[in-house]
Specification:
145 residues, mainly alpha, two-stranded antiparallel sheet, 5 helices, 2 strands, 79% helix
Length: 145
């Protein structure tokens, strides 16, 4: 009984590790097909309802996702860098204290480091918002023609 279980565990691990990317790829294509079907239905409804060109353009065109920028800074990169610095800080504290990786305290200190990194990122973002303002404020301050 124990021998068959010892063989099944690695086999299950290999099968599941291969199944996760396959399921991910399949779900990506299913989502893409559903999006195309939805876009086709929207276009058909626009044609059937004789919608004017400006409204149709707004309904069809999706706004392009742009990274949030504040002045010359990309805030997503800032957040990732602060998280990585927090992980490094937590690992360094673990090394200084001598905590074993099997202990829950190791992971708690790493999580604390990540929290410190996110807090630093938040404080820097707040400073940048105060200094540069937000993109919405810049757009609303433009004079109307």
């Amino acid at each position: 009984m124990e021998d068959s279980l010892a063989v099944m565990i690695p086999l299950a691990a290999v099968i599941l590790s291969l199944a996760i990317p396959i399921v991910g790829i399949i779900m990506f294509f299913v989502t893409a097909m559903n999006q195309k079907k939805h876009d086709k239905e929207v276009r058909q409804l626009i044609i059937e309802n004789h919608t004017d060109a400006e409204t149709a353009k707004l309904l069809i065109d999706e706004p392009k996702k742009q990274p949030r920028k504040m002045g010359p800074f990309n805030l997503d990169n800032l957040r990732a860098a602060c998280i990585l610095l927090g992980i490094g800080l937590g690992a360094y504290i673990d090394w200084l204290v001598g905590v074993e990786t099997k202990s829950i305290y190791f992971w708690l200190i790493i999580a604390f480091g990540i929290g410190i990194g996110l807090l630093c990122s938040f404080l820097v973002e707040m400073h940048l918002y105060k200094k540069y303002g937000s993109k919405e404020n810049e757009k609303s301050e433009e004079p109307a023609e």
